[in-house]
Amino acid sequence: MAFKYSNVLITGGAGFAGSHLALLLKERYPQLKITALDNLKRRGSELNLPRLKAAGIEFLHGDIRSRDDLLAVREVDLILECSAEPSVLAGLDGSPDYLIQTNLMGTINCLELARVRRADFLFLSTSRVYPIETINSLAFTEAATRFELADAQKVPGASARGFTEEFPLAGVRSLYGATKLASELLIEEYRSAFGLKTIINRCGVLTGPWQMGKVDQGVIVHWIASHVFGKSLKYFGYGGTGKQVRDILHVRDLFNLVDRQLQQFEQLNGSLFNVGGGREISVSLAELTTLCQQATGQKITVGPVLEDRVADIRIYLTDNSKVTAATGWKPEISPAQIVNEIARWIIDNKAILSGIL
């Protein structure tokens, strides 16, 4: 099938999701001119620059907080907005200025570029737009290694399969989640007012090799790296047993969805989707520990912390029903495959990753 785009801008293009989308797009569509814009604030993002260069992707050292940096991109017919300050704890220990300027004002600047250049706009949002207290109020059961959502729920948009786009949005969700939700609302306004074509993906936990994982963002890589490097870990909150659950999505599975969406942009224009691994591709921290032990051959100390962590949630699972119905896409890469692939990447690159992970 012919690809309708010629010049693609990927913001956050040296970050985890952005660099993967850039590299995989270039591999599938070699004729594309792809520009990856990034401010390189996150430690480890500089390691992606040689990979981008080798693939023939232009790197632009810029910041989405600067409209001039964005307007320097003269030719663009598609913007993949992957930039973010992605930590759910961001802004809680001081001024939220960088978080808001990046995640909200940065998106507005990207929308302005799309308006001026008449570019299509695909936005990576987050499941963190859903309010914490409502999520933690849901009925659940406790199994041997994980918490499970009950099928019967009083809250719309929730079931044992996870969360649909109908889940209510009223309530506190974290400063991070609020900036992404505000961005979603502005995207819809720009679509209506200026005729932009837009798609929004509310992503759950994304993971894979080349993610510079930390405890507050990129926890899968952080957990695996702690096993490889022999660092201790903690099960925070919910009884300290590690039964809290997240679905996880390999970044290649995300790319396969984005590729389908780009082929169908006209039909999907204005769509908003929950996107994640779903119940089938989910792990509790306790289950993740077992997978890490199997993948690395290492057993480390994981102690309990009974106090709940700020902004934490017991369970998040994506119900992909809407996006699957619209595109036919389903995630395919299993938790065991994900953990094994990341463990091999860390082990093979211990020298350059030891100071980062």
Automatic annotation (TrEMBL):
Q: What's the superkingdom here? A: Bacteria
Q: Which residues form the NAD-dependent epimerase/dehydratase domain?
A: 8-276
Pfam families, A to Z: Epimerase (PF01370)
Q: Which InterPro entries match?
A: Epimerase_deHydtase, NAD(P)-bd_dom_sf
**Family the entry assigns:** Belongs to the NAD(P)-dependent epimerase/dehydratase family.
The name under which this protein is listed is NAD-dependent epimerase/dehydratase
